[in-house]
Amino acid sequence: METGLSRKPIVLVGLPGSGKSTVARLAAATLGAPCADLDEAVAAVAGKTVSRIFAEDGERAFRTLEKTLGEEALRGPPAVVATGGGYMEDPERRRAVLAAGLVIYLATSPAVAAQRVRGTAGRPLLDGLEAEVRLRELLARRDSGYREAAVTVTTDSLSSHEVAAAVVKLARERGGW
């Protein structure tokens, strides 16, 4: 039987609207693991929403804090970690997360991701633009980093619970859970 010491953090990556936060909470609950949502953690530490951080301090300030909190999450007790959509863009961050955890790419088409984020607040990189167009741009820029994940789960035709079940299965098969 595996012990907690051999468990790898489960790290979810993907576009905004891919379900990272929702799936992380569901999978963590099933695994009896902590859930670390980096967007929520950044907002809590900064004392303001992600949108306000972007507007007042800029994306660089957000990414710096996100990196610090991501490193802390990977060093702490094994958890299910929901990253921000741009987490895998930085090569140094990407190498660190790939070495430390089981990285799972929640692949979602820009059209489906746009439907999921429609009407939600707190998505600064989607503000002021047609969401699907912006998500296509983000995917073009980020896809190579996402594709470095150990495994890909295509989410377009799955519910959050089905994606979480797939993540739990992968955590047990490949992450020592």
Record keyword descriptors for this entry.
177 residues, Rossmann fold, five-stranded parallel β-sheet, 54% helix, globular
Would you mind describing this structure in some detail?
With 177 residues, this protein is of the alpha/beta class. Helix 2 crosses helix 4 (59-75), helix 3 (50-57) packs across helix 4 (59-75) and helix 4 runs parallel beside helix 5. The relative contact order is 0.23. It is globular and about 40 Å long. It is 54% helix and 11% strand. It has a single domain, classed as Rossmann fold (3-Layer(aba) Sandwich). It starts with 9 loop residues before the first strand and ends with a helix. A five-stranded parallel sheet has the order 2-3-1-4-5, with helices on both faces.
Shape: globular
Order of strands, main sheet, comes to 2-3-1-4-5
CATH fold type: Rossmann fold
CATH architecture: 3-Layer(aba) Sandwich
Percent range for β-strand residues: 5-15%
Number of helices: 8
Point out poorly predicted stretches. Answer: none
> H/E series, N to C?
EHEHHHEHEHHEH
Number of domains: 1
Radius of gyration over alpha carbons? 15 Å
Question: Which CATH first-tier class would you pick?
Answer: Alpha Beta
Content-based structural category: alpha/beta
CATH superfamily: P-loop containing nucleotide triphosphate hydrolases
- Helix content class: 40-55%
* Terminal Cα span: 9 Å
Number of strands: 5
* Main pleated-sheet profile: 5 strands, parallel
Mean pLDDT: 92
